[in-house]
Amino acid sequence: MEENEFDVFVIGSGITGQTVAKACVKAGLKVGIADNREFGGTCANRGCDPKKILLGALEAYELSNNLKGKGIGKPAKINWKQLQKYKRNFITNIPVSTEKILKGKGITLFHQSPKFIDDTSLMVEGKKVTAKKIVIATGQVPRTMTIPGAKHFENSDDFLNLKKLPKQMIFVGGGYIGMEFAHMAARAGVEVIVLDTGSRPLHAFDPDLVKELRKYSESIGIKFIFNGQPTKLKKKRKKLTLTYEVSGKEKTIEGGAVFNTAGRVPALAALDLEKGAVDFSDKGVETNNFLQSKSNPNVYACGDVSDKNLPLTPLSGRQGYVVAENILNGNKKELEVPVIPSVVFTLPNLATVGYSEDEARARYKNINVNFEIATDWFNAKRINTPLYAYKVITNARTNEIVGAHLLGPDAGETINIFTMAINNNMTDTDIKSTIFSYPSWVNDIKNMI
Question: What is the C-alpha to C-alpha distance for residues 308 and 120, in angstroms, rounded to an integer?
Fold first, then answer.
């Protein structure tokens, strides 16, 4: 059996794995990297990047539709086939270019998911690989549905690559993936149903803003079913029938496609972690503050697969740097997590950073909460947006901003100013005394605090 020895072996070729591999090979270590899918990872190939490309045309559609009769004669129409072709221009070459870059740096590539043999060895491509340090950076995969007929569910990969849109779609799960796709599909003319087991969509986001987004989502044709538990999926000749229960009553709905958008879980099932003495839970590989496996000191885990992570690309990259530094210099660098913004790229965007209102009330003795529907503000009126709202939370004692929640056009950009403010302990006075360009969305934050 052919054997390969490395100083560092990385499992996963997304931004996190690449960060570790590049840093270690630059330091003179012998590095290998493996992936069972296209090199480049989820975000670049089948996640945030292709999603945002599709969203670009839908943003133009939304704006033209809002301004119909106000300078726009005929609103834009979505040509899904052309949009998919445009997206492929960005995505197609990513795996090839990623492999070329990694090979050019002297990193050895493997195209298979490795399996642990013992605490320092793996089996990949029929070869035994040993490494002084093994880094798990496999990211996340869709949560498995276990109901009868679950094999007929499609997932986010399938949606992003749809060649043709069916007349009806069902999304099982009202999290950020389900809501983003529902907004895209509805604007492209699809009849959309979102089924969620909870009482509202987007449980991790501010309930007042989610309420407004839900009402607007319904106004563009999205139908919601809450407190619904899917029980069976059956494929017919042209449609699929989803059976679900609400309050003990069985009901059915039909769609041309049914998508599993019930969340994502760490991609660990294929690795045989037990053989590698790597402890893990539903949250991911169990790690210490150095992102080192608690049970196997030869192993590190970073990115979405670590139990210290949030499923956000900026934090995944930071974890990669931490792991690389600890491999190269010994465990000296602990993961420091700043306040990180999160955005749902519906139209309009829903964005959040810092504490929720409930979290802030539990943490501070007194807080100030500014919540307003601001569709009558100039920036909202000039483009006739139907939805613009905010909730900003400050510590009443220090006047520091501790939480911000935005719903509106460009909220995914504006939230970054609040992120900077919270990470730098800025007060409402600091923001109000800053001169921003006018009129701009960012300038509006002065009136939000």
Answer: 23
